[in-house]
């Protein structure tokens, strides 16, 4: 999902006499139409290798080569170009993420649908570029006719479709990119890290003697960075989906990127944002989108049923926060 997720890393630096100081080294770059950052906590006498910047960039290029609908030569674009019925061999990561997206679709009763691309594009939030106008009912019906996750199947590394469908993994791909980078850091010994792509995060370990990683959940207010809640995180993925960053304004009305597959239109309920914590940033990403589409009441019920740590902010008479039992352990500070 191309959006700002409302998460800000709060980093504190300190030192201890007689011991190597703990430093937090930050790397940054651009990917997936947004930015990425990596923060690594390490002793002063064990600096971060200069090669890491290029390694992270290369890993994210590979994720784009697999899952970017904006790249005509990506794996997902090649699959989308096939006329049904058809199948093709794909990379293991692409097959795995598609399978996870299909699982979320089934769990949510289709409210999360990785074939929603035609609807998303029609409303101007994905390829192809569209005019800044409201789509007609006929256009919405035509786009909805191209949506339906049940026509997609994954068997090992073979991806198939029985009807013409276009996969759009943008609601889970950034989280997957975070996981790829975090797993690489662990594999080369950087256990204490905070990885972020466009607001999706994964925290590994902590900041050594500086304490846990602390992340701020923003209030769902456009053009503002006000903090709603601080959470302390360790070895967990974090993702927020909201309606307050990625939106279009047409004839004075705002229409945001979260689409209801059952209507082919942006959702219109009072839920401003939802934050999900999950060991996998990809799954946190996908779940956050799912719960935003469902709304607070249905989203809370589904998140609680599945034991998710989820935090909801709704609008009404001001902003109101609510959260699942599993989220309580992460709260820090006063709402």
From TrEMBL:
It comes from Litorivicinus lipolyticus. SUPFAM superfamilies: ApbE-like. This is FAD:protein FMN transferase. Gene3D superfamilies: ApbE-like domains. Keywords: Cell inner membrane, Cell membrane, FAD, Flavoprotein, Lipoprotein, Magnesium, Membrane, Metal-binding, Palmitate, Signal, Transferase. One of its GO terms (cellular component) is plasma membrane. Its EC number is 2.7.1.180. Magnesium. Can also use manganese. Mg(2+) binds at residues 171, 285, 289. It comes from the Bacteria. InterPro entries: ApbE (IPR024932), ApbE-like_sf (IPR003374). Belongs to the ApbE family. It catalyses: L-threonyl-[protein] + FAD = FMN-L-threonyl-[protein] + AMP + H(+). Flavin transferase that catalyzes the transfer of the FMN moiety of FAD and its covalent binding to the hydroxyl group of a threonine residue in a target flavoprotein. One of its GO terms (molecular function) is transferase activity. It holds the Pfam family ApbE. Signal peptide: none annotated.
């Amino acid at each position: 999902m191309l959006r700002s997720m409302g998460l800000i890393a709060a980093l504190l630096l300190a030192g201890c006499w007689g011991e190597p100081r703990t430093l937090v080294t930050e790397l940054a770059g651009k990917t997936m139409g947004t930015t990425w950052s990596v923060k690594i906590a390490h002793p002063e006498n064990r600096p971060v290798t200069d090669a890491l910047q290029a390694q992270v960039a290369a890993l994210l290029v590979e994720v784009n080569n697999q899952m970017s609908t904006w790249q005509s030569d990506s794996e997902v674009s090649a699959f989308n170009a096939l006329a049904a019925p058809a199948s093709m061999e794909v990379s293991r990561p692409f097959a795995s993420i598609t399978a996870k997206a299909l699982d979320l679709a089934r769990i949510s009763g289709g409210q999360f649908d990785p074939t929603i691309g035609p609807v998303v594009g029609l409303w101007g939030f994905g390829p192809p570029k569209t005019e800044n106008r409201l789509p007609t009912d006929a256009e919405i019906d035509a786009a909805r006719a191209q949506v339906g996750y049940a026509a997609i199947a994954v068997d090992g590394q073979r991806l198939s479709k029985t009807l013409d469908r276009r996969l759009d993994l943008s609601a889970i791909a950034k989280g997957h990119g975070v996981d790829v980078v975090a797993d690489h850091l662990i594999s080369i010994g950087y256990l204490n890290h905070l990885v972020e792509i466009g607001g999706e995060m994964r925290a590994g370990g902590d900041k050594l003697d500086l304490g846990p990683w602390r992340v701020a959940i923003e209030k769902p207010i456009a053009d503002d960075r006000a903090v709603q809640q601080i959470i302390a995180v360790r070895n967990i993925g974090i993702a927020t989906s909201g309606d307050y960053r990625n939106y279009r304004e047409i004839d004075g009305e705002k229409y945001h990127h979260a689409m209801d597959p059952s209507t082919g239109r942006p959702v219109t309920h009072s839920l401003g944002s939802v934050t999900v914590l999950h060991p996998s940033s990809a799954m946190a990403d996908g779940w956050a989108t799912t719960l935003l589409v469902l709304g607070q009441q249905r989203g809370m019920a589904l998140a609680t049923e599945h034991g998710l740590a989820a935090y909801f902010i709704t609008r009404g008479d001001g902003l109101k926060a609510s959260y699942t039992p599993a989220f309580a352990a992460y709260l820090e500070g006063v709402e």
